[in-house]
Amino acid sequence: MKLMIDDARIEKIKEIWEIYPVEGVTTNPTILAKSGRNPYEVLKEIRAFIGKETPLMAQAVSREAEGMAEEGRRMVKELGENTYVKIPAIPEGFRAMKLLAGEGIPFTATAIYTPMQAFLAGQCGASYAAPYLNRIDNMGYNGVQAAKDIHDIFRNNGMKTEVLVASFKNSHQLLEMCKYGVGAATVAPEVIEGLVKNQTILSAVDVFVQDFEGLAGTGRTMNDC
Ligand code: G3P
User: Fold this and answer.
1) Cβ density class 175-189: b for 16+ within 10 Å, e for less
2) Phi and psi, residue 130, nearest 5°
3) From 3, 5, 9, 28, mutation site for ligand 1 pocket: most ligand atoms within 8 A of C-beta
4) pLDDT at residue 99, rounded to an integer
5) Atom 7, ligand 1: residue with shortest CA distance
6) Ligand 1 centre and the CA of 224: distance in Å?
7) What gap in Å lies between CA 149 and CA 194, rounded to an integer?
8) Average pLDDT, the chain
9) Ligand 1 pocket, Cβ-based, cut-off 6 angstroms
């Protein structure tokens, strides 16, 4: 399962990138709006940092298919290869997906709340389909199960589309996706940091350091023995 960062704050992206094994950056219009800046300026900054080989995702916001496809062309032109255009899995979106597929522009189907949306997006040639796990939970359904079902639908129908699970609010939701081995998960920096933010773990490491210093002297390490 590839882990991606769901954010557009360049400093936060750099911080997470340095520590954790992440392999992509995703954004959505709400995330970009928080910057208050020109979206291309923000996305180009992210692209310059992550390099041209790494997946970068941004969403089209036109209401009609032609507009969505045109946004997709512009994004790829401005942001280069390995830019995935996020297209909502709604009727006009499916029409846009078919246009983009015909031009070989990679896209991610987004705003997925039901497995049938994902199936249709897969048939349209989506590289990824993004179910919103926590939002599905909030509707009273089971987001983890929906993501698993979508993964199975792709595999059982011989589709190449991968699940890119989005909208995580806690570590357990992500653990369930790791166990199932879905293609990718995109996660907010704060949730990534929360995966290992645990006083018990830190205390265990502190005890090892203290015991070693008891043996070799304060501040000493294996390099000093
Ligand atoms: O980009 C879609 C996904 O990240 C939405 O997450 O936290 O707004 O439910 P959230």
Assistant:
1) ebbeeeebbbbbbbb
2) -110, 95
3) 28
4) 98
5) 167
6) 48
7) 26
8) 98
9) 6, 28, 132, 134-135, 166-167
**pLDDT tens, 55-114?**
999 999 999 999 999 999 999 999 999 999 999 999 999 999 999 999 999 999 999 999
Predicted local distance difference test score (pLDDT) of residue 112: 98
| Buried/exposed code over 73-112 (b: 16+ C-beta within 10 A; e: otherwise) | eebbeebeebbbbbbbbeebbbbbbebbbeeebbbbbbbb
Known catalytic residue: 179? no
Q: Which of these is catalytic: 2, 12, 86, 148?
A: 86
**Predicted pLDDT of residue 95:** 98
For ligand 1, the distance from its centroid to the CA atom of residue 69, given in whole angstroms, is 22
- Residues contacting residue 140 through CB under 8 Å, at least 6 positions apart: none
Mean pLDDT value of segment 15-34? 98
Q: What is d(CA 182, CA 192) in angstroms, rounded to the nearest whole number? A: 17
pTM score, whole prediction:
0.95
Q: Burial of 207 by CB count in 10 Å (0-12 exposed, 13-18 middle, 19+ buried)?
A: exposed
Q: Give the mean pLDDT of 117-144.
A: 98
State in Å: Cα 150 to ligand 1 middle.
18
Q: What is the pLDDT of residue 135?
A: 98
